[in-house]
Amino acid sequence: MSNNSLNPLYFQLTLFSDYGPLRYLFFSLCLLVYMTIISANAVIILTVFLEKSLHQPMYIFICCLSLNSLYGSAGFFPRFLMDILSDTHLISRPFCFIQIYVIYTYASNELTILGIMAYDRFVAICQPLHYHSKMTFRMVRHLLGFAVLYPAFACGLCVYLSVRLPLCGNKLHRILCSNWSVVRLSCVDTTVNSIVGRILTLTTVFLPLLFVLYTYLHILLVCSRSSSEFRGKALQTCLPHILTFVTFSFSLFCELSLSRLEAHQVNPFVIVVLSLEFLIIPPINNPLVYGLNLPQIRGVVFSSCIKTSHKTKTLLFRSKALLEYVDFICTHD
Hints:
By secondary structure, the protein is an all-alpha fold.
């Protein structure tokens, strides 16, 4: 068997179809979604970065969620938009593994960040007197370092084990590259990949999920013994995080279930929808939930919009006055 057949230079994404002129409509809609993701998350990042009153652990973690959304979207949308317009849907072997690494680290980063956000809320509600001594900026740096470095190492190991496999095919029944879809093409035994994959899934997915559930169980117990005013304030700060956590967990569960099923067992439309849900809904949901539900961020955003609108009106008024003055001078010369 030739080296190229064992290590194909390209993978073919087989779920793309020729929709004729409709491709331009799909392209426009997906481009609009991508621009919305970039704009919404950029607003959150700039708001937290520029407003000094938001330089607190909770808002720093929210900013990191938005940065991670931009990172994950950049690993999917540019290539996806090209594929919509293309007649051939081939992706080079190196770029396929890069896409796998980016998307998997995006998913893992999201869970670890949600985990440290749950810890932040746990300390703030259950141990309020120790919050400032525990959630120092040094601790925030350490938590964020762990939230980024561990997924980078875990996903790097997973991708490395897949890269070294000899492959007996190049067709992926997906609209994007996924690790298990590539592993299934292997000509040799993949027991090591399967075991390592399950261990890493346990540590990067299920442990953060269990930790979040554990922290919120304690928060509920504390709230049940507290006043209604305290419960209201706790709910106001925890509700956005709960909504984000539930949305992302559902999307991730669908993606994990999808990756383990045989291609012929699932309708192609379902595969496309679940793949897009995993990469579209959380990046849009995060800035909307935090931007609309947290009064601190909402207030700063609205205030900035009002100031920008006022400056624009002032600039337009001055420009109009200047034009009228120039016109007056010209007519009297």
